[in-house]
Design goal:
mainly alpha; 69% helix; 3-stranded antiparallel beta sheet; elongated; 3 strands; 7 helices
């Protein structure tokens, strides 16, 4: 009598703790992108510069949504691709956050005004690091617990049309993230 092994669920090869951290971090990145990145004070009044007031915040908001969508896709599709796409989006958020944080006061005001970094920018940096750390745990666990390779992925695609749909969604998320990365560098180079 031959027994067939039941197929592994998408969550069985996933580091649940790392996945949970990554999911929460992607939500944190959305909140951070919408939050205040700087507070500018003049002798007469003060105003807040939100993340989405500038291009960088809009880029990080879209990248955070791509990371979240990739993580949702990974919950139903046992593949490494959504994790790598989310990692690319997290790296984009980290790049934008740390570059803007290092620019500091120059990002928000000229020399006559006092500017301070807002909690949104700090949260963006912390959230992007948490996202990347959670994803690293997921990737390590995924590779360790499953037979993964390009050949295995292609064989799986040939067997199940739903896998092809998941692959297309993952590729589209990766392409959107690369477009955001190119857009970010075309707007402002980090060393300027």
């Amino acid at each position: 009598m031959s027994t067939h092994a039941s197929p592994r669920s998408a969550m069985s090869t996933l580091n649940i703790a790392g996945y949970g951290v990554a999911c929460v971090a992607s939500i944190v990145l959305v909140v951070a992108s919408l939050g205040p990145w700087g507070i500018v004070q003049t002798p007469a009044n003060s105003f807040t510069f939100n993340g989405t007031s500038g291009t960088d915040g809009k880029i990080t908001l879209i990248a955070a949504c791509v990371a979240g969508a990739s993580l949702l896709l990974r919950a139903v599709w046992n593949s490494l691709w959504p994790l790598l796409t989310a990692m690319l989006a997290g790296a984009l958020c980290a790049l934008a956050g740390f570059v803007d944080l290092s620019r500091g006061q120059a990002l928000f005001a000229d020399d006559q005004l006092f500017a301070s970094i807002g909690w949104g920018l700090w949260l963006l940096c912390i959230g992007s690091v948490a996202l990347l750390l959670g994803l690293v745990l997921c990737v390590i666990t995924q590779v360790r617990n499953s037979y993964w390779g390009i050949g295995a992925e292609l064989r799986e695609l040939a067997r199940d049309p739903r896998e092809l749909t998941y692959t297309i969604v993952s590729v589209l998320c990766a392409i959107a993230t690369v477009i955001l990365l190119v857009w970010a560098f075309s707007i402002r180079l980090p060393w300027e």
